Amino acid sequence: MATGVETTGASEVLSTLTREGKRRWICPKVSDGRFLRARRWVAWGLIAVFTLVPYVRLNDRPLVLLDVAARRFTLFGTTFLPTDTVLLALLMVSIFVLVFLMSALFGRVWCGWACPQTVYMEFVYRPIERLLGLGRPGSKGTPLARGVKFVVYLLVSMYLAHTFLAYFVGVERLAQWVRQSPAQHPAPFFVMLATTAAMMFDFGYFREQTCIVACPYGRFQSVMLDRDSTIVAYDRTRGEPRGKKRAATGDVALPVLGEDEARIGDCIDCRLCVTTCPTGIDIRNGLQMECVNCAQCIDACDAVMAKIGRDPGLIRYASQRELAGESRRRVRPRVAIYATLLAVLGSLFLFALATKSLATVIIVRGRGAPFTVMPDGTVMNRVNVKVTNRTDRPVSYTVEVVGVPGASARHEEGMDLGPEEARVIPTSIVAPFDAFSRGKASAVIRVSDTEGRFTKDVKYTLMGPGTMVEHSKSQKEDDDEEQ
After folding, report:
1. Average of pLDDT values for 148-171?
2. How far apart are CA 317 and CA 313, in angstroms?
3. What's the rounded mean pLDDT across residues 306-316?
4. Which of 16, 69, 351, 390, by CA, is between 20 and 30 Å from 243?
5. Which among 190, 165, 181 is positioned nearest to 67, based on CA atoms?
């Protein structure tokens, strides 16, 4: 019988590694069934979504564009800036809580059904390998087959790298780079080259070790799952003791009962659940870190049960509580807490998004002397007004000073900003000499748009010569008293 794990004769530490540190290559056998067919539809749907999302626009913006260089992140037609600290924090925490909730309810459904590592490995790269006759244990294939495999893998990896890059630079800029020489855009070309090489290494060599060694999700199972979480499980009560085997037809070994033996369990120890596992584990050993819940062992075992006339479900989606014969609890404290947190965080995120300011205003003191006394006796403070237009249309802004009688603001540049444009505008604030007390004057700098939709008041302390003037007056009074 062909096995899905290359035998080395040495004891193993991981399903892909022996104690001697040698790689144990896994070539899983495909087990057709209802879960594989469902996963195939999901996988191809996700691949289509991954390919098309960079081309989809909403509110005249890309559906998803993570422009790290410009520090603009567009999600579902809404642009987030680095100043959106609260929004970004709420979004990230909500995603983490959602992962905890989904894990508590459905186990590692993400890993087996939607993770890009699983989707592309099991439904793109390995099918190419099998098509070329290279997907069997110990089969190295012909040099021609290996060469064709390398070329096809390279083309697929380049497609994935370009699509991945489109999420960060946009399809328009990516199309320009593709038509230009790499010398005109060396940094993006290097990123694309490095991404392609990483995918070639991952899907061509590292493979399932990404899930077992690199990805931390499996190690988080102990805190994410409980006895009511859905997992892929072997029903030991029904399957044990495993039956004896006699000469079999095909891949199925039928059980034999001795004359004085009691009825054996439903498991006939055919090991198809092992040979079909993409991470090379034996699900009959219980819940394991390496299990990605892909359900291939379920499809394999159900097919065997059908051939020997027994009920399906010896290996199935279940909870540990169900396997112990107890009633499963759908609603429990962990799920209620996660769901409540997610609802609160989601509500806060939507509220913060709905009340998000139309512009961001930051005022900092200008360089040089803190103030200048003008020839006409007025006092001038230099400030830098940074305005970020957070709308998707051009806006004109004005600056004025409130709270200091006679004060005015003058800016040398215009304050017409384009969509999502940010600009630092040097501004001079001129105030009367007698507006200062002890060298300071409390003012409010008001930035507003010409349409009356946005107004932002920023408290600001103007600096002036009041302290020196009062000191001179006090000194003069002392001199008069002495005389």
Report:
1. 93
2. 8
3. 93
4. 16
5. 165
What pTM value is reported for the model? Answer: 0.78
Distance CA 352, CA 383 (A): 30
Q: Span 145-172, mean pLDDT?
A: 93
CA distance 7 to 215: 25
Across the range 365-371, mean pLDDT stands at 87
Q: Are residues 375 and 403 in the same domain?
A: yes
**Last residue within a domain, chosen from 224, 253, 273:** 224
- Whether 380 contacts 374, CB under 8 Å: yes
The total number of structural domains that make up the chain: 3
Beta-ladder partners of 424:
386
Domain boundary among 323, 351, 371: 323
- The SS3 assignment for 367 reads coil
Report cis status (omega within 30 of 0) of the bond before 62: no
Using the CB atoms, write b or e for 444-480: b if 16+ within 10 Å: ebbbbbeeeebebeeebebbbebeebeeeeeeeeeee
The answer, yes or no, to whether residue 62 has pLDDT greater than 60, is yes
The residue to which tokens 């991981």 are assigned: 14
How many Å apart are CA 325 and CA 284, to the nearest integer? 18
Say how far apart CA 390 and CA 422 lie, in whole Å.
9
Shortest CA distance to 363 belongs to which of 396, 389, 386, 397? 386
